[in-house]
Known about the structure:
alpha+beta, Glucose Permease (Domain IIA), two-stranded antiparallel sheet
Amino acid sequence: MKRLATTCLIIPLLFMFFHTSVMAEESTTDILKERKALYEKMEAVTQIPWNIFAGADSYERGIRKGRNDRPQEDGAIAIYFSPEEWAGEINPNKEDTDPLSIQLFGGKGVDGNGDGISDRKNDEDILMTFASHLQKYGTEDEDLKIGLWEYYQRDKAVDFILGHAKIYKTLDSLDTDKYAFPVPTNRNYSYKNTWGDSRGWGGRRIHEGTDIFADQGTPVYATTYGIVELVGWNKYGGWRIGIRDTNNVYHYFAHLSRYEEDMDRGKMVEPGEVIGYVGSTGYGPKGTQGKFPSHLHYGMYRDNGYIEWSFDPFPNLKRWEKQS
């Protein structure tokens, strides 16, 4: 009877968990569809490619994850305008929604959906306001690059946005929520949480990643959709690759024995794509190897629009390992 009662209790709980998971997936899919529809609608009106809107939006969404001075977005779009930017610095009404008075006070906010209101929390108004800035410079590739730089005043922001846009255009989708463990799970490997441990070579410092020990020559996989941002030698990391994902997170792969062919800066990669092979390079001048057992150093860094910092990749690695 106890076993029957326990079974009767577990089955509904499993059903509820499954139902909740399905609902969450459907909700995410709906949001992505809504965003893409908004971008495409703006493209039809402004002639600015939808993927540029998508790239800027995901860049700013990533920024929000790394800062506490910006509120959670109210709608589907994460591009942010402060009340002062929207309504105008000298506007006494910082919540002004009148397009004429906003213009009078030098605010940026415009009416994007034709309802006669410039609402800082309306997705179409936000996108049209952003587009109004870019349109001042033109809609060709170089024009958009200049417009983005003038808007963000940061080279990295332009690179991130154009990289995100490249991924979205290639996939014709906003769904980049797919990840892979960085080495084959059917090979011999081992790792533990070593983030924050002390390191002495080259001076006292902390270990900004997790070491995954594996045989020399074991394939190394891209863990996410991303753009190759860095390829080359570093005296600490040896032969290494850096990949930027659509959340502005930088994925760092070090101590490689060699790269996969055509692994050049600007290349788009997908989760599970071979990017290189495990080695023991580093801790010396170019070509140094064998100073430690072969392993992959895997690090993750978040950018918040101002600075970039390392965070512990171990929880993500455990999750991706289970999903493999």
